[in-house]
What we know:
Layout: E1 2-6, H1 16-26, E2 33-38, E3 46-52, E4 58-62, H2 73-97
Amino acid sequence: xxxxxxxxxxxxxxxxxxxxxxxxxxxxxxxxxxxxxxxxxxxxxxxxxxxxxxxxxxxxxxxxxxxxxxxxxxxxxxxxxxxxxxxxxxxxxxxxxx
Length: 98
């Protein structure tokens, strides 16, 4: 999965590699989509937006210092898991509706 940081400087943030590792662990390898990490203003929260073809984007807000804070990787994993579980539950609903 592609991860896009906006602004691009977030890509070198202290915890960006941890985020990449967590996403690789939690997202199925055949997943076709993109995770956008958005933090346009320092005083606002970071928004994680999961985009896939044919579905509404899913998003989750995390604290503004999330990529710079010294938080345990487990906390990051839990928040990314919230987002990916919403993706999985949406896929199940779509299959049931078909």
